[in-house]
Amino acid sequence: MKEKMNFNEIIRKYNLAILLVVFILISAILSPNFLTLGNFLNLLQQASIPGIVAIGMTLVILLGGIDLSVGSVLAFSGMIASIIVEKMNGSGASILLGCLAGIAVGTAMGLLTGVLIARFNLPDFIASLAMMEIGRGAALLTTSGNPVFGLGDAFHILGGGFLFGRVAISGLFWIILTAIFAFMLKYSIFGRSLFAIGGNREAAMLSGIKTKRNYALTYMISGLLSGFAGVLTASWMSTGQPTAGNGYELDAIAASVIGGASLSGGIGSIGGTFGGVFLLQIITNIFNLVGLPSYYQRIAKGAIIIFALLLNQFVSKGKGGKE
């Protein structure tokens, strides 16, 4: 019995690490180019933007909520930033103004979603679904569905540039934000309140936690991160693309769940989400390296999500903490 408990404890603590090791080994066998520094740095860049979006999604999931608007917020924010940069001919002032405007738009959309949920008691699924439609429609409306070109090389550096010629700046942004929000969840009052609200909202309210304010603030942060990801996307592609971010909400949810988050709330971590994003990106990367079509990737991702959920259920009986 003791050996079984020890085995369960190992699985509980290291299930994501085990999955990562397994897929890294499989990938290394299938492609000799996988375990190269260049491919790893490419993985970091490819995963950075969905990874930033997934941070915000994890915060929302910890509350027991869901945010379906992140992909549309990303697209609209990127379009606003692109339009400003293009109209002002890619000057330094236009880049700063465009970035701030894009982030502000994302923040405002996230806050509005949070207010609709917290103040007017709309279901989070419905409120964020409505904002998803509004954001996507607004992104298409800005230029009648046409991309924005001519953003300049200076703007491209933010999302598509490299330090020392190798390390993607967008990847560094992702790592820094992951560290900041992981620290916040563990050591701040706000971070601990998310676990409390997600674990038992009524008990959190009775203990004096301002649940409505925290709901609005959490969705606002999700919108801010999606807005920043939208700016990085436009910068990376050197194009404002109104269809950018399609499906990002599903990838963000999947990464959080694979990383150990519970859709019921109260359980999850930013570090786990970081690993979940990397695992999904590894699947995409190895399929690209061996030349398999994208629809195989979708089947594989779906299977991994199901497996991760079943694994989480298997170990949940012994799970008593947040991490």
Structure description:
- With 323 residues, the protein is mainly α.
- It has one domain (34-279): ABC transporter involved in vitamin B12 uptake, BtuC, CATH 1.10.3470.
- It is built from 13 helices and 2 strands; from the N terminus they run H-H-H-H-H-H-E-E-H-H-H-H-H-H-H.
- It has helices spanning 2-30, 37-62, 70-87, 92-118, 124-142, 153-160, 169-187, 189-199, 201-206, 211-237, 248-258, 270-289, 294-315; strands at residues 162-163, 167-168.
- The protein has a two-stranded antiparallel sheet.
- A hairpin with a 3-residue loop joins strand 1 (162-163) and strand 2.
- Helix 1 (2-30) packs antiparallel against helix 13, helix 2 crosses helix 11 (248-258) and helix 12 (270-289) runs antiparallel to helix 13.
- The two termini are 24 Å apart.
- The relative contact order is 0.19.
Q: Which segments are poorly predicted (pLDDT under 50) over 5 or more consecutive residues?
A: 319-323
- Could you state the order of secondary-structure elements as H and E? HHHHHHEEHHHHHHH
How much of the sequence lies in strands comes to: under 5%
The count of domains is: 1
CATH topology: ABC transporter involved in vitamin B12 uptake, BtuC
What is the number of helical segments per DSSP (H or I, 4+ residues)? Answer: 13
| Class by alpha and beta content | mainly alpha
Number of E-type strands: 2
CA-CA gap between termini: 24 Å
Percent range for helical residues? over 70%
Global outline? globular
Cα gyration radius (Å): 20 Å
Strand order, sheet with most strands? 1-2
Which CATH architecture would you pick?
Answer: Orthogonal Bundle
Largest sheet: 2 strands, antiparallel
CATH uppermost class: Mainly Alpha
Rounded mean pLDDT score: 90
Subcellular location: Cell membrane
Membrane topology: Multi-pass membrane protein
Keywords: Cell membrane, Membrane, Transmembrane, Transmembrane helix
GO molecular function, one term: transmembrane transporter activity
